[in-house]
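Lab notebook, bench 4. Still working through the backlog of constructs that have no structural model yet. Next entry is a single chain of 285 residues. Request: give me the structure tokens for it.
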Amino acid sequence: MSEEPSKVLPFIEHLVELRRRLIIIVVTVFIGMGFAWNLSDEILVYMEKPLTGITYIDAAKHRIYRYLQTNYPAIYQRADLEKELNKPRKQHALNYTKPLEPFFIQCKISVIAGFVLALPVVFYQLWSFVAPGLTRRERKLVIPFMLTGTLAFCMGALFFLTTIWPFIINFSLSYETEGLRSWLSLSAYVDFCLRLILMFGLIAELPVLTLLLSRFGLVSYQFLAPKRKYALLLSSIVAAFHSDLVTMFVIMIPMYMMYEVSVWVALIFGKKKAAPPAAPEPEAA
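Model written out:
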């Protein structure tokens, strides 16, 4: 006998329940903001790390230059890589022009960090809101959903901070010349970084969402696989909201790659369709 979902709540009770869940999420985020307030300076320092010139990109370039100097000295001298290798490391500083601007930046960083700390509660409240429409076996997936959702968001955010963000800043600073100097605004720099942190965290949630929907039988590999061209188009549209071409590509490519991962997640972990019953054999004469 199959399990039946719980009794469906009336529409008004759904709205009341949604409001209660949202209030709990907001309160939890503010509590997380209080814990993250003292960490905001360290987070800002980590966000400013690409401005120091000490990134994996600079280290990789130096290793390549040393390799060419040792093994291919002719190419090394022809390309004048000695100047690049011995070029002094520039220190860049963020600037602010408005009163209390650093304070509001600290508030923004603390809110985002508090949201990350509150992610288990956020996912639990979301799951609890949809739980009345699930079976008893499906409601037991709340703990795996909380853990995988939180882990996926954190991995997406860390991937951006450690890999994509240094690339963007390094590319931007490469346009500096003798007559062209960067004057980076504190608000623009931090807002840009925080927006992309949230973007990459949400992108990383796509395979987790696909895993749940495929386990519930709502999506399947047969449904997702033919939609690749639409996924690529949607990824391009979402990425096109960013003004520069570099940021557009660093958002579009990971977003589409997560869709590809989701397709294979649906294939491997999706709900298998039951085999159709065999036709009865005709009775012998």
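Notes after review: Residues 11-54+89-174+182-204 form one domain. The chain has a mean pLDDT of 82. Flag for follow-up if needed.
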